[in-house]
Write a structure and sequence with these properties.
The chain is mainly beta. The chain is built from 2 helices and 11 strands.
């Protein structure tokens, strides 16, 4: 049985949206980057302990079904990731201002990561 591995990054995250490139990026600060995997229109980054510590989403407005202007107005962000037996479960939680109203979004992404990525869990907030 594999030992449970958890990384608590509450308050240690940051995000950015590139309006021109339509790329949304989130990461855990102060983690040492090791390698990346490309999965569809996402690139996920891992640190030297093989925790998922960064996510880039290309064509983010299309991926999330939201206008670019909404993605540019993000106010809060959290992501939870779990890798279990080669499957990535990613829950994003973010808020954006739409017509002067704060609206919450909680997309869930499930992807096969393959490789030899060990099981792990992460919670990261901004």
């Amino acid at each position: 049985m594999e030992k449970e591995r958890n990384l608590n990054a509450l308050g240690k995250g940051e995000f950015d949206y590139d309006y021109q490139g339509d790329t949304l990026f989130f990461k855990v600060k102060e983690r040492e980057y090791d390698f990346s995997l490309e999965i569809g229109n996402m690139v996920i980054d891992f640190d030297t302990e093989q925790f998922l510590v960064g996510i880039q989403v290309f064509n983010a407005s299309e991926f999330f079904g939201l206008p670019k202007i909404v993605l540019r107005s993000l106010k809060h962000f959290q992501f939870k990731s779990k890798i279990d037996k080669g499957l990535l479960f990613l829950r994003l939680n973010f808020s954006a201002m739409i017509r002067n109203k704060l609206t919450n979004y909680q997309p869930m992404i499930q992807q096969k990561v393959g490789g030899n990525i060990p099981n792990s869990e992460l919670v990261c907030t901004i």
